Fold these 3 entries.
Entry 1:
Amino acid sequence: MGLLTQAVCPACGAANRIASGRNPSLAKCGKCRHDLSLTEPIDVDDDALARHLRLTRGPVLLDVWAPWCGPCRAMGPQFVSAAHRLAGKVRLVRMNSDTAASPNKLNVAGIPALILFDQGREIGRHAGAIQAGDLVSWVMDRCKTRSAHS
């Protein structure tokens, strides 16, 4: 799996190159100096998701969820754990399906839904809650398959 080479700042929206071999938890925005949050999932709205998909160089994993959804709430800590394990390799973002239009545009039929993108294109989709270890394996497998076909 390739590393993230560019990530979007969650505070100002600026694209930032990511230096390889550096600790992803220390990455700061070159424009506003805000933490790039590469080790944690970040919450996005429709505009922020579009910006991440357009400007991120590397995989982006979207978790579509809702606060009233029991499996979504159970999935939350698993998604955070996966973000720690995938730090510097994949940008993890979360979108509340109750407040965003993108889930409909992405044909999300049920939640929780995980959609994996690479260079803005969908490369994988998973429906339902999943444990962190299985999620990391699923992401790595999809990214390896994508690299083999590129």
Note: The chain has four helices and seven strands.
Entry 2:
Amino acid sequence: MASLSLEEEYREAFQLFDTVGDGKIECSESGDVIRSLDFNPASEEIKKVVIDIDPKGIKRITFEEFLPILHAVAQKCPKKPKPEEFFEGLKVFDKDGYGVVLSGELRQVLTSLGDKLTDDECDVLFREVEDKKGRINIEEFVKMVLSG
């Protein structure tokens, strides 16, 4: 089976978000489509590009109108990190080298840097991986985050 060209891959992802079947998506869904293509743009980056096209947040756009949004955002943002890169980034917080981080430290980072999470979002995120002592196994956390 031949692999899809980039444009075909982009079109396929776009079509998944076309819930009406008219060849259009809500302009506000552009970020979701872009993220589904393994790009990791900050919400603010998406807003900067989309606001010029759809200042009122109500426009439906075609694939051809979506492509410039994708290209503008893709030039400024990286692809999603590989598990090894994510793991290495979290090891900075593993002071003792046991493969665990304190949930309080991780919460501080997640609620204050980049696309900030709320405390409630951190609670949901940590629920499955935090032990009774407030520690999070880095490997389990990376697997959980990257799987869903």
Note: Strands lie at 24-26, 60-62, 100-102, 135-137.
Entry 3:
Amino acid sequence: MAAATPPPLPGPEEYAYDADPVLIQTPTSGDGVEGGGPWTWTPMWHRPCTFGPSEFDAVMQNLVRNPNVLSSWLFRADILAETTEAAAAAEGAVTPFPCFASLVRADDRTIVRRLIPRNTMRDKPMLQTCLFYRGEEGNDDHEHDDEHEDEDDDAEERSLVVYLPHVSDPAHVPFYHPKVQGVGFLHAWRPRDGRGTVSLHFSLFPETLATPPDDAASKLSRPILARVALSLVNTVCKHGEGKRAGYVKRVHHDQLVPQARVQDRYTRLKEKHARRLVATWQETTDPAKHVFEDLSIAAFLMELWRDMYGVEGEEGVPAQFPGFVDVGCGNGLLVHILNEEGYRGWGFDARKRRSWQQYEHYENGDGAGPAGAAVSLRESLLLPSFLTDKGNDKNETETDTGRTSSTHDGTFPPGTFLIANHADELTVWTPLLAALSGCAFLAIPCCSHNFTGARFRAPPPSSAARQATASVSVTLASSSTYASFVEWVAGVAEDCGWVVEFEMLRIPSTRNVGLVGRRRNVDAVFTVEHAWDVIASHGGAHGFADNVAKLAAADGKKNTH
């Protein structure tokens, strides 16, 4: 007979406006130093849970280090101190630290963090102290002996995490934080029942406490605080129940470049360029998505290049930067952003976009192009020279196409960094051409195309490939169409001699896997013969040169009318 399904847990319940405090702060700090008058902690919401103290502790540790989980207005937290002594010395710290009835400080864990907002034009970063407490209720009057074993089993285990913003005036509290002087997350656990409760408590500023409940300001602020508190308690419970059920983090960001550096760079780029780029958008697509996506990719690239090519010079660009080429550059925005930031490079695509006119940069006859010519964005078809020299179709595509100005032969100056951002038909060619020319690359796969340029479904990744990428993303370890294509491109890159690195980019797109090739796993030179072997082992390139010839011919007819 099947076991009965336990009844579902009740939902969250709001405390009454005049409910008695659950958290009782005493007038003595946790380290025994006399403090001022204790704060009053107003209970806001409580919700039943089935996860114990260990899961609660793990969840709160994660939330302390990743506050963006609790608020989408935040980027991250920079940890400034992790001991009581260091925390007490932090600028604006609320000391002496509070203590609470039936609770004691947990070890020496005291964290001071700097909250970094997404929009620094509106809000400033804020320092905040995070304190951890533990205790029991229900057996204070008994020793742990056999006579009172039942009473011990009934003891309620309590865990408390308190956030104390380093702000003394509610007017200075930033938008992303509730206008309170303290936030308390209390987890109460009953081992015998296997059930517990998570409750959320605010310590209101004295000005707020002094405001009568029927006052207009109070009627406005209380519902806002209640909504924030409900969101906080629901998020903690969601993550706690997931932890108990064995949830595994699906995506691991920031594998190649530290999060703080990329986000800080992104913030600077956004403040400098976003408003102008959105306001002058020429395409019919959503400007916000494309602008913020390319700003984010540019930020990642600039920080990656900083690691690869050395520290920045006076103009902010690494002195040894070799230049870049954006293969299949689309609307040209990414090229434009990088050029605006001083990074030398250009991009090409099969057809010119309406936005190119405003994004084009010009040269002064330095060898990259004639004086006064637009060289940053070029209308060109990719036709690797070895396809026409040797011919995958046994010379059936011997035309002058590979020698005209409307095609690119796939050869790049050694060291050039190649970018393939959702380059579709050109994605899989990028690691191969990079190996032939001695270039590093970043490929961000999107639609599945093989070496012929045709749409296809890549075979599911092998168990070894899944295991290799599971540490980066659970999604990549699946057999979905996108995951299969990403693994297929990565396999091509590895066959070309690359050590492939994965980065789950922080961009507003579900196709956000970046494949980076900057180190070789072989010392031998990658030759055209090697390239043919790789192409053959992955289905061949039959018809690719023919398709390019047809596109070039169609383009020539268009330009004669």
Note: The two ends are 81 Å apart (CA to CA).
